[in-house]
Amino acid sequence: MTLDVSSPTDASKAIAEAFHLRAKLFRGLSDPSRLAILAALDRGPRMVGEIVAATGLTQPNVSNHLRCLSECGLVQREARGRHALYRLADPRVPALLRDADALLAAVATGVPDCARYAEGDPERR
């Protein structure tokens, strides 16, 4: 992210905003259902029913997450009559997820046992 600043205060604000946007991106990627949808779309454009079959999620759940991913700009929607075809908006999305897997395997081995990251798991709090 390029920061265009003219004073130290502007720089601090710009840096804070950049971190805020990065955190929002990672919150969007933090949902297992959205990750499953992105993985399904990594294999090529798909219609909702195909994503449902590939992920095992319900159709309403897939539609809700696709709306979120689309609004964030991570997924593109193309109307096909009464249906829609979804595709990844950028080829860097799967690369980012592969990099995350490599990081987990190489150095972030404590993440599975980290209670601080287990917001949805009441037994881990």
Key terms:
125 residues; three-stranded antiparallel β-sheet; Arc Repressor Mutant, subunit A; mainly alpha
Short description:
The chain has 125 residues and is mainly alpha-helical. 55% of the residues lie in helices and 11% in strands.
Instruction: Write down the secondary-structure element order.
Output: HHEHHEEH
Strand content: 5-15%
Tally of strands:
3
Class by alpha and beta content: mainly alpha
Mean pLDDT across every amino acid position: 88
Sheet with the most strands, sense and barrel status? 3 strands, antiparallel
Give the oligomeric state of the chains in this entry, treating copies of one chain as homo and distinct chains as hetero: single chain
N-to-C CA distance: 34 Å
Topology (elements, then pairings):
Layout: H1 8-29, H2 32-42, E1 46-47, H3 48-55, H4 59-71, E2 75-80, E3 83-88, H5 92-106
Antiparallel strand pairs: 1-3, 2-3
In words, what does this structure look like?
There is one protein chain. The chain has 125 residues and is mostly helical. It has a domain at 31-107: Arc Repressor Mutant, subunit A (Orthogonal Bundle), CATH 1.10.10.10. Helix content is 55%, strand content 11%. The protein is built from 5 helices and 3 strands; from the N terminus they run ααβααββα. It has helices at 8-29, 32-42, 48-55, 59-71, 92-106, and strands at 46-47, 75-80, 83-88. The chain has a 3-stranded antiparallel beta sheet with strand order 1-3-2. The radius of gyration is 17 Å and the shape is globular. The two termini are 34 Å apart.
